[in-house]
Write a structure and sequence with these properties.
By secondary structure, this protein is mainly beta. The chain has strands at about 5, 10-15, 20-25, 35-40, 45-50, 60, 70-75, 80-85, 90-100, 110, 115-119. Strands 2, 4, 5, 6, 9, 10 and 11 form a seven-stranded mixed sheet that branches. The protein has a four-stranded antiparallel sheet with strand order 1-3-8-7, with no helix packed on it.
Length: about 120
């Protein structure tokens, strides 16, 4: 089992940047596919980005492509989401998640971190 703790959220003006971090416990972080999700008020949770074990393959939702970058540092047991050119519609609670089955459902979730983008 793995525990995930997000940090780095906050209030930022439109056009600004934030970097979210997801610290994982345990020694098997490098064996988990990692993803970032977000949920805005009144909306369903959506996948923002995900990254494979080595970091060599990534996926982005169309809404964030070209503005967000997902990465991971397996030596530090940490995943990141660098967010740039932020828009008010990026406002949401952001969650990181881990998939031990490499293509199955995300089984482990963090508590979330709030990102608010003001116009």
């Amino acid at each position: 089992q793995v525990q995930l703790v997000e940090s780095g959220g906050g209030l930022v003006q439109a056009g600004g940047s934030l970097r979210l971090s997801c610290a994982a416990s345990g020694r098997t972080f490098s064996s988990y596919r990692m993803g970032w999700f977000r949920q805005a008020p009144g909306k369903e949770r959506e996948l923002v980005a995900e990254i494979n074990l080595s970091g060599g393959s990534t996926y982005y939702a169309d809404s964030v492509k070209g503005r967000f970058t997902i990465s991971r540092d397996n030596a530090k047991n940490t995943a990141y989401l660098q967010m740039g050119s932020l828009k008010p519609e990026d406002t949401a609670v952001y969650y990181c998640a881990a998939d031990p089955a490499l293509g199955g459902p995300y089984d482990y979730w963090g508590q979330g971190t709030q990102v608010t983008v003001s116009s």
